[in-house]
Amino acid sequence: MSFLKKTIKEAINIDKSLFRKIFFYSIMFSAAFFLIIQLFGAVSGFIFSKITESSGAVSLENIDSANLEGYSSQMYGFLFLFISNIIIFAAALAYTYSFFENKIWNTIFGKKTDFKNTSRFLGLNIVMSVIFSIVLFVLFSLIAKFLYGIPKLGSIIFFSVLLFSVYLFFVGYWSFGKTHEVFRSLKNIYLVGIKRIDLTIFEMIFALVVAVLLNLILLLFSWLPETVYLVLTVIGLQVYFSWFRLYLTNALKSVKL
């Protein structure tokens, strides 16, 4: 019972000023994310409208070879624009996320955010995303092959590894916030996140319980209009992850890098 009280006390005993700053940057990211998605949808819609317009203006009955060649070139041009649009907006999303996440961890550790360390943080994100995507793909393939007849067990294993991967992502972010070094942060994912899991195991279980409770609370408001419920969910998630970052940092305060 005393251990539970200690855990709850540690969860509540976070820097309120830092929490407000982190939450502010998290909401700013959510707003930027929404604007980028809306802009992407608008540009994609415009490209598709031009493709439809061009397709409707061409009749297969009276088209000659010259017109066909011009039409093909136009379609290739639209395809190039569409692919370029995806690449540009994906890069914008990745950099925007890296900027705000880097800004948050620099705020926690009292460090300056600039183009250099944001670009390094983006590199860390890319490497971690590739590594964990490969791990999850291999795991999913193994589950599909060996646990095909036991879907519930396979789902439990997959989502457990997925949650652990999210935890390791945050360990990588925590390490980068302290060191601004990509390879050192990747190394610390193993040295701190896996090898020294004993430092955070109880805190992470508690954080998982809090996440489940938050999800149940949000479900109580699912009757609200879709847009209102979406905004409420985003705010709830940003409150949770703002708290989680500080909670994880406190749990790892004894670690020296």
Describe the protein in words.
By secondary structure, this protein is mainly α. Helix content is about 85%, strand content about 0%. The chain has helices spanning about 1-10, 15-55, 65-110, 115-145, 150-180, 180-195, 200-220, 225-250. Helix 4 (about 115-145) packs across helix 6 (about 180-195).
Query: Mean pLDDT score, rounded?
Result: 85
**What is the structural class?**
mainly alpha
The quaternary state of the protein chains shown equals single chain
**Roughly how many Å is the radius of gyration?**
23 Å
Helices and strands, in order, run as HHHHHHHH
Percent of residues in β-strands: under 5%
Give the helix tally: 8
Q: Report how far the terminal alpha carbons are from each other.
A: 33 Å
Largest sheet: none
| Backbone shape | globular
| Range of helix content | over 70%
Low-confidence stretches: none
Based on DSSP secondary structure assignment, what is the total number of beta strands?
0
